[in-house]
Amino acid sequence: MANMFLMFYLSMIMFLFGCLVFVSNRKHLLSTLLSLEYMVLSLFIFLFFYLNFMNYETYFSMFFLTFCVCEGVLGLSILVSMIRTHGNDYFQSFSILQC
């Protein structure tokens, strides 16, 4: 029981550190995407332990992982298209008015 609460707290601390990195680092798109994936991983850990604690089916976690993979692929495709058009992944060189 205490182990379960430790995992809850650990996943929430992981999520908060991911939010901190996401907010503080605005230079490269790749580091922003990595911090988003770290936050998704911590949310998955929290969801998995919560579903196990409440004795629910963990089938919903497969849906969550599917949407997380789609989110990661979409982010990487935006990164690749940005590198092809602008030559780097700096946010400073990217302007919304050029789209």
Brief write-up:
With 99 residues, this protein is mainly alpha-helical. The chain has a single domain, classed as Helix Hairpins (Orthogonal Bundle). Pfam families: Oxidored_q2 (PF00420).
Q: What does this molecule look like?
A:
It is a multi-pass membrane protein. Its main location: mitochondrion. The protein has 99 residues and is mainly α. It has one domain (1-90): Orthogonal Bundle (Helix Hairpins), CATH 1.10.287. 77% of the residues lie in helices and 0% in strands. It has three helices and no strands. The chain has helices at residues 2-24, 29-53, 59-86. Helix 1 (2-24) packs antiparallel against helix 2 and helix 2 (29-53) runs antiparallel to helix 3. The radius of gyration is 17 Å and the shape is elongated. It starts with a helix and ends in a 13-residue tail after the last helix. The mean pLDDT is 84.
Give the helices and strands, then pairings.
Layout: H1 2-24, H2 29-53, H3 59-86
Helix pairs in contact: 1-2, 2-3
Structural key phrases:
NAD; 99 residues; elongated; mainly alpha; Helix Hairpins
The share of residues in helices is over 70%
Shape: elongated
Could you name the CATH topology? Answer: Helix Hairpins
The SSE order reads HHH
Would you identify the regions where 5 or more consecutive residues have pLDDT less than 50?
Answer: none
**Can you tell me the CATH architecture?**
Orthogonal Bundle
User: Largest sheet, if any?
Assistant: none
Rg from alpha-carbon coordinates: 17 Å
Number of domains: 1
The fraction of residues assigned to DSSP E strands is under 5%
Q: Taking all residues together, what is the mean pLDDT?
A: 84
Helix count, per DSSP?
3
Family: Belongs to the complex I subunit 4L family.
Keywords: Electron transport, Membrane, Mitochondrion, Mitochondrion inner membrane, NAD, Respiratory chain, Translocase, Transmembrane, Transmembrane helix, Transport, Ubiquinone
EC number: 7.1.1.2
Membrane topology: Multi-pass membrane protein
